[in-house]
Design brief:
By secondary structure, the chain is mainly α. A two-stranded antiparallel ribbon has the order 1-2. Helix content is about 65%, strand content about 0%. α3 (about 65-85) runs parallel beside α5 (about 120-130) and α15 (about 315-330) packs antiparallel against α16.
């Protein structure tokens, strides 16, 4: 039995369901795994990216077109680091700086093609707007990418992407067109849900979407289930999950089983919720030691939280498993989440665990950028300033 099949079970009995479990609300975040980086210690992460940046600069000196790709990866990761550091303004500055660099250097002979690297920083600006709860700004930015996917002229800020270039980019068989399409779908669905435009999320299915693209398909399906659940239309949400659950070998089937369990719980069908959630927990606990990957960690967090609300005894074992794997993977934010879940299980006695969660985030400098400037400057600040100088001077 493969890992997906092991997790995708719903027949295991659950234990210790309380008479009056805590109320369950539908989690409004997308759990379909896509581009899930390890959120390690920010100084270590920034130092690694700085080394890659120096290599990318040398590559750019030799070949502008070839160097643009590793450079955009450095700017994208540095922006994510700044968001984790607590400086969303600096994250946005990095995205804007790279866009200006692309716009300026694309005018060099033979360099028009580097405009393709404007998509990710542009979408990252939309992500930052969503994080800042500027939902309409986020949607307006993301909508531009739909024009590009339709091979129309489109402006990414000050950058014109001609229809001819869009047509050439999206005709390729390389991974890049798929990356842009899936990222667009993911960010559009997330923004619609966050600003509570549920009916639009339920109906969303862009005409250029290829149903064979299973990641994008699952994001669209999950967005519909979430939206229906948030509206309290639980029977419709359960029905919307059925197409995903029909594929018993689907990579994300366990995710949709979680959504079924969560919807049962939100609807007050506690025994059904406990049965499905308990079966998923048994699947996770049967994983061989060390085999649980980053792509499953977000689901494991939400399942553990649901088990706690349902009062199922396996919740503690699941939280301990999650903490063990998050520590092995060096993901500080998942470590913090599992420690806080373990604290929830201890009630008033969980203060030490909450303190440990906060200490791990502090040591990793998560959120430290909100405080006054550090002396000497942190590796995060050093990386950001190096990137901004390069973008302005090159």
């Amino acid at each position: 039995m493969n890992h997906s099949s092991r997790l995708a079970t719903e027949d295991a009995p659950a234990r210790a369901v309380p008479v009056r479990p805590e109320p369950v609300r539908v989690f409004d975040g997308i759990l379909v795994p896509y581009q899930t980086p390890v959120r390690r210690s920010l100084p270590e992460w920034a130092t690694t990216i700085h080394g890659r940046f120096l290599q990318a600069v040398e590559q750019r000196r030799l070949d502008l077109v070839e160097g643009a790709s590793p450079l955009v990866n450095c700017f994208n990761e540095a922006a994510l680091i700044e968001v984790c550091f607590g400086r969303q303004d600096q994250a946005a500055a990095l995205c804007s700086a790279y866009l200006q660099w692309v716009n300026r250097n694309s005018r060099r002979p033979g360099a028009l093609v580097i405009l393709q690297y404007a998509f990710e920083p542009f979408l990252n600006l939309a992500r930052i707007a969503r994080i800042q709860q500027r939902y309409e700004d986020a949607l307006r930015s993301i909508e531009v990418v739909d024009k590009v996917a339709r091979c129309q002229d489109a402006w990414l800020g000050d950058i014109l992407i001609p229809a001819s270039l869009s047509e050439e980019i999206f005709a390729r068989s390389t991974p890049f067109p798929k990356l842009i399409r899936v990222t667009y779908i993911l960010e559009w669905v997330k923004a619609l849900i966050k600003c509570k435009r549920y009916s639009e999320a339920e109906a969303f299915n862009p005409p250029w979407h290829n149903p064979a693209d299973l990641t994008a398909r699952d994001i669209i399906w999950e967005g519909k289930i979430i939206s229906l659940g948030c509206e309290g239309r639980y029977d419709d949400a359960l029905a919307a999950a059925e197409p995903a659950l029909a594929d018993r070998d689907g990579l994300n089937r366990s995710l949709f089983l979680f959504r079924r369990a969560e919807t049962y719980a939100a609807a007050g069908r506690i025994e059904d919720a406990a049965r499905v959630a308990g079966g998923l927990a048994k699947g996770f606990l049967s994983y061989p030691p060390g085999s649980l990957s980053m792509t499953r960690m977000g689901l494991l967090v939400r399942l553990t939280a649901l088990l706690i609300k349902l009062g199922i005894e396996d919740a503690l074992r699941l939280a301990e498993l999650g903490l063990q794997r998050a520590t092995a993977l060096s993901d500080i934010l998942f470590q913090s989440e599992f420690l806080n879940l373990m604290a929830d299980l201890q009630g008033n006695g969980g203060m030490a665990l909450r303190a440990e969660a906060a200490e791990r985030r502090r040591k990793g400098l998560y959120g430290a950028g909100r405080n006054s400037s550090q002396n000497p400057p942190s590796p995060v600040e050093v990386l950001t300033q190096a990137l901004l100088r390069f973008a302005a001077e090159d």
